[in-house]
Each structure stands twice: as C-alpha cells, then as structure tokens.
Amino acid sequence: xxxxxxxxxxxxxxxxxxxxxxxxxxxxxxxxxxxxxxxxxxxxxxxxxxxxxxxxxxxxxxxxxxxxxxxxxxxxxxxxxxxxxxxxxxxxxxxxxxxxxxxxxxxxxxxxxxxxxxxxxxxxxxxxxxxxxxxxxxxxxxxxxxxxxxxxxxxxxxxxxxxxxxxxxxxxxxxxxxxxxxxxxxxxxxxxxxxxxxxxxxxxxxxxxxxxxxxxxxxxxxxxxxxxxxxxxxxxxxxxxxxxxxxxxxxxxxxxxxxxxxxxxxxxxxxxxxxxxxxxxxxxxxxxxxxxxxxxxxxxxxxxxxxxxxxxxxxxxxxxxxxxxxxxxxxxxxxxxxxxxxxxxxxxxxxxxxxxxxxxxxxxxxxxxxxxxxxxxxxxxxxxxxxxxxxxxxxxxxxxxxxxxxxxxx
Length: 410
Ligand code: SAJ
Hints:
CATH architecture of the largest domain: 3-Layer(aba) Sandwich
Largest sheet: 8 strands, mixed
Bound molecules: ligand SAJ
Number of domains: 2
Low-confidence stretches: none
Number of helices: 15
Order of helices and strands: EHEHHEEHEHEHEHEHHHHEHEHEHEHE
Shape: elongated
Strand order of the largest sheet: 3-2-1-4-5-6-7-8
Distance between the termini: 70 Å
C-alpha cells in the first residue's frame, strides 16, 4: 500500500518506519524542508536507543522517502503537533492544514487516520468537513478514523508494537480497514470505538496521570509542613491493595501531560484545572528551596535539563522553567542526554554552593557524594526525585534536602 504520513516528528517518523519495514511504500511529508532532506539522506536526529537503527533499516529498504508536497496515496496518517496557545486553548492549525492538503489529493477508496491528540469532536466536526472540501463524502467515498498515539517517549518502538491500540472509526468499515492496517505491526489488542470516544479516552488517560501526579505533589508539600516524608508515606500507603500514589517531583513536563488536560477543560475552575496549577507550581517550590538555602549570587549546579529520565527531550521541562526563576544565581547545567548540556559533572559542580538534582537519569547512579562535595564550595544538595541515597550524602557531610520530606520532630 502507498501510505502518506503527515508530520515527521517523534510519532510520525517511527510510524512511517514501521510501515516501511513491513513492506509498505511510505511517503512522509513535513513542512520542514531540512527534515525532509535529512530523511531522504537517511539522516535521523532521534537519539532513543534502538530507534536510530530501526529508522536506518527503514531507509535501507528503499520503502521510505519524504517530501514537502503531499502526493496521492491509499492511506493518509496525520501525526502533526497539536499545541496550546498562551491562553491554554488548543491550536488545531496544523491539523487543519494537513486536512486541506489531503483534501487536495484525496481519491475514492482512501483511508484517512488522525493520530494527533485532539479535543473531543475534532475528527467529526473539524477534520471531516475539511476533507469533504474534496467533493468526496466520508463514509461513502473515503474512510475516516481517529487512532490516538499512546506511546511513551523513551520506549517508542516497544510501545508502538506492544501497546493496545484504540481505533475510533466514523463507521464499521473505516474501523475495520484501520484495524487491518495497524495489525501489520501492532501486537497488542486492537479495540474499536467511535471517533469522539477515542479522542476523549486518550485525553482521559493523560489527565488521569496528571491529576494523580498533582495529588502526589500536594501530599509532598503537606509532608514538608508536617515534618514527615512523602516517599516513606507513599511506600507505606501503596501497600494498600487499592492505593497507587504516583511520584511527586519538580513538575510535570513533556508535550503531553501539561497540554492534553486543557483539551478537556478549557478554562473552568474544576479539579483538572487545579491539578494543572499544582503541577506547574512545583517548580516555584523548588526555586523557594534553592533560594532559602543558597546565599545571594550563589552558584547553583543543576543535574538534568530534559523533561524526564533517560531522554533528551526538553519540551516543557521543569528545569527550563526553573531557570526563568533563578535570575539571582550563577547557574550551571548538566544533562548526559541533552547535547548542549553534555559535559563533565566535575566541571559543572566545581565551586557550586548548591547542587540540585532535577532529573533521575540512570547515569547519575555513578555519582560519588564525597567526590562531588570535595569540588563544591558549599554543601547543599537538593534531591527533587528521591534518587540519591540520603545517608551517603549526609555521611559525606552534605546538607541533604529531599523534596517532600522533612526530619520528624520526635
Ligand atoms: N512524572 C512525575 N511523577 C510520576 C510520573 C511522571 O512527576 O509519577 C512527570 C515526569 O517526570 C515528566 C512528566 O510527569 O516530567 C510526564 O512524564 P510521563 O512519563 O508521565 O509521560 P509522557 O509525557 O512521557 O507520556 C505520556 C504517557 N501517558 C500515560 O502514561 C497516560 C504516554 O503513554 C502517552 O503516549 C504520551 O503521554 C502522549 O504522547 O500523550
């Protein structure tokens, strides 16, 4: 089959490669001509383990090429970004423009799939009428589905194949065709809904996680107030068969959890909005902890600039937000995955007053507290992820501060 994948980002490109490696002829399109040029040369910027080799394999099959222009195909898969604007309102302009481009080449018998995360009703109320500008009718002349991507950055390849997949077709025929198509590589169960239910389900999943993290974060702040330790409380509470407290931390980053809940609530003052505010506010709490423990104009060394462990992705990273709040300090940044912050830890911590661990990258397991403290000027160590061993730092002479934990007053 000839498959057009629109948007060659962190979902579109691996998806295109999946189909190419399974023998389909795939044409990826993107507005970024540099990206298109690179794909056509077999040059890929993605650094996730295993993924680069997989993309190169796809390139070597000869089944994958890219273009800035859309071309007639059997199937169109939309994987474009759906960000929010400054007022937290969804920006669906990329979906609209992908829809218009497809409409310009759409033919009878085509299948169109929207994978981008969108507000409920988008497939039916926005995309369908745009596609019908072609003069063709959805359900009669062409098939249409929403099939949300649900893979976790850091394990994209594994999750693309192993995760269950949800298909929301506008009718049975659309869903059936999409199911057959995804069956070429999806090993998990494929289940069917209508488009709006599929859209809502994807948003419900990410909102569930965001709300649960907000609860963990609020409990962490309360633990500090009550001189106890959220990490111990969490461990104990999670022994209960029906309790699963998530991990608190310096905030919720990435391009999914800080964005998708806004597609559901759009400005009301309910629980979901409150939870977004709690998670966004955590970075201010970290800033306050740094300020309270570091002298004026002090040097602050920060470990981790990515939005979460073991990835190079910096989108909405709590560290990048924190930087905007730390004007009064001399900041040094380290991250083993982020190119511009990949340097020696020794160089970053030298003469630092305070060391802040923002991301629990696996590489930081090798840190030896005594060696780091020898290089630092001060002795303050702030762990926002419960990653370090507190006793090792304390024995080496650090003033060790764990987010969400204070010494009990017995
Ligand atoms: N985080 C916490 N505490 C936790 C879990 C995560 O503070 O207990 C933080 C992380 O450090 C990070 C942020 O939340 O800053 C988001 O990370 P994540 O691992 O929770 O999620 P994402 O954004 O990488 O991927 C999510 C996933 N959704 C769910 O697990 C419900 C993924 O399956 C989706 O495909 C993806 O969003 C997406 O594309 O929508």
